[in-house]
Amino acid sequence: MIRISENELNLRTIMDSGQCFRIFIVEESYFVTVYDVVATNKYVRVYHVKSEGAYFFNCSKDEWDFWNTYFDLDTDYEKFYAAIMKSDDNFLKSAAEYGNGMRILRQSFWEALISFVISQNNNIPRIKKSIELLCEKFGKPIEKYGTVRYSFPTAKDLENISLDDLSDLGLGYRASYIYGICKRNPALVMPNYEMLLAIPGIGKKVASCIMLFGTYDLTQFPIDTWMKKLLNEVYSGTFDTTLYKGFEGFVQQLQFYYYRHLKGK
Prior knowledge:
Layout: E1 2-5, H1 11-15, E2 23-28, E3 32-39, E4 42-49, E5 54-58, H2 61-70, H3 78-86, H4 90-98, H5 109-119, H6 124-138, E6 141-144, E7 147-150, H7 155-158, H8 174-183, H9 193-197, H10 204-214, H11 225-235, H12 248-262
Helix pairs in contact: 4-12, 5-10
């Protein structure tokens, strides 16, 4: 078991922040919450032991190297929090306190690309369901802890799919976008924001999310309908990201997560 303090990591916060869709609560009680986390072709079970104030990863040392990177645990987030707490932005300071343990995951570009195209104009339960159906149909089974999860299908796994193959995944009009991306994936070797915008089905918000969560570009500041509401209500329509240069995306996640909490979401 690998132990990580809940001051460094909060899986519930990350799970509900909209940056990933494959963290699952397996069991929950007053004493412990059990999570399954699946990323690419990896799968780990994590125990949040509340009396210990810590998370315990049930994995080998070799596996831990992957998860340590995935959860960005080598990055010092304290400097981000310190800069926020020095500001005169009371809303953001409250968001930082509420979102303690937030981190920006280092996800694979391919998984983020497909996942955030699926996410457009969609709600989280439907996004998760479509992604799991995609993984079950085209991914590979991973059996651990007496449970079977599925890997996220690679570009190679999806290169010969047809539109009919995607018809029963609940993707709606997004199926044609996924199909198009799978047919052009060799062009996605060196991703950048402008390249993403040239792909049918990817607008500014989705491109920004893919860059933030799929390439770890912390300068991105995605603006969806929730963020538009937040900016109008809290900041009179504009927010100066230059005060948080180099970790704008982290600030956005704190704001997004806290504002949805305030609105009962």
